[in-house]
Write a structure and sequence with these properties.
alpha+beta, 5-stranded mixed β-sheet, Ubiquitin-like (UB roll)
Length: 81
């Protein structure tokens, strides 16, 4: 299981939790696990989020490994021009 820290706006979709745990070995499994455990997160995740692992933002690699030893944050993807 990996612990995922969420931004405060997502607490409404996780029963008020700002940290959740999912079974995952990589970023792709982590995102799929979040949707399985918290289906209301799907629109947000599908719209685009970033994942930070130990302070490093994983921009596009769904195969980036994660483990229970990592500090993981789900981050709102900023859009602009």
């Amino acid at each position: 299981m990996v612990e995922v820290n969420l931004w405060s706006g997502l607490k409404a979709y996780t029963g008020g939790a700002d940290k959740v745990e999912v079974e995952a070995r990589n970023v792709g499994e982590l995102l799929r696990g979040l949707v399985r455990a918290y289906p209301d997160l799907e629109p947000t995740i599908e719209a685009g989020v970033s994942v930070a692992v130990d302070g490093r933002i994983i921009a596009s690699s769904l195969t980036e490994p994660v483990s229970s030893e990592n500090e993981i944050y789900l981050i709102q993807r900023l859009k602009g021009g």
